[in-house]
């Protein structure tokens, strides 16, 4: 966690005193912690205590912070945003995207992963309104830690206690995707387009830049995985610490993937051409003046994702991508089932996402669908790598 920048939102709950211990533990791990105290939070814990333990000025007022750093810069500064404790009111505001205070603005502006540690009376936690807010936030990719069961401040007991700080530290470590979590694991990643030759000078290809697949390979390697990246022709540099196998056609890509097995996980991010010219002309195809354009018969390419998912040496976790221009979730769910993938990452490519720096994806798993907000492709990669580490753990 050394050098990790954590923005800690402390909202109004009796459990706010535990935020002090959380800051102490995070700093002992080498993290920087910037406390942000809400108005209700300030009723339970003092600004002075938070400042003393974090070694930083506590942010409270939206307008004062605006003059000093600005909520957008603050949102970008953070590697992770942690809301601990998160009151029922804060969960509701987050679910609705309300921005009437500094915490609301930062939580809406940030692209960093968010971890929420709820703390409230068991009846408030069990209320359908709170449950709906939690479901809405989880569907947007917000991670939850707790609450835990046990005695409350009021003389009663139940589900609603803030998760104990040492366990919260572990949840934050998982959120950040600490290095070494994938040590000893081999992960296969496909990336980029394929090129299917028509003749020695022409080919069929697509607009894939390889950015997302390469970022995933890099994020996995950063977590200590041994990564084999099988890539079609791209114009971006090789990620560091990754074994890159360069291919052109779908058939070469399949052969390279099979040669790379066994692997614990496979992430098929390549935009593989579904068809190739049925025959590759040995010589350049010439146009004959006065004649109609020649036909271009196509043959189907092998499906790499399907082949890996059905292989006797199947990776434990097979992840596919579904790039769609309409009916995103329905098509992605159908593809997940048809191709035998464990997870499907679905994105809408109608809005010119292909080739861009950002991506807005849905993660489809056996447990359901999560919507991740629009974020840098490297951030999508880090989150996905974190989830892969969790799944393989
Ligand atoms: N894929 C693959 N090999 C292929 C085609 C696709 O491994 N020959 C993988 C992609 O890497 C991706 C997933 O399958 O993980 C979905 O690819 P996509 O092209 O969107 O799906 P298709 O089955 O080709 O469906 P369609 O083109 O009809 O949308």
Annotate the secondary structure layout.
Elements: E1 5-10, H1 18-28, E2 32-37, H2 47-54, H3 62-68, H4 71-77, E3 80-86, H5 88-96, H6 102-109, E4 114-118, H7 122-126, H8 128-139, E5 143-144, E6 148-151, E7 157-161, H9 165-176, E8 186-191, E9 196-199, E10 202-204, H10 211-222, E11 226-231, E12 243-246, H11 250-260, E13 265-268, E14 275-277, E15 298-300, H12 304-309, E16 317-324, H13 328-339, E17 343-348, E18 358-359, E19 361-365, E20 368-371, E21 375-376, H14 377-392
Parallel strand pairs: 1-2, 1-3, 3-4, 4-5, 8-11, 8-13, 11-12, 13-16, 16-17
Antiparallel strand pairs: 6-7, 9-10, 14-15, 17-19, 18-21, 19-20
Helix pairs in contact: 1-2, 1-9, 4-6, 5-8, 10-14
The protein binds cytidine-5'-triphosphate (CTP).
Cytidine-5'-triphosphate (CTP) is lined by residues 190, 250, 268, 270, 272, 274, 301, 303-305, 320-323, 335, 339.
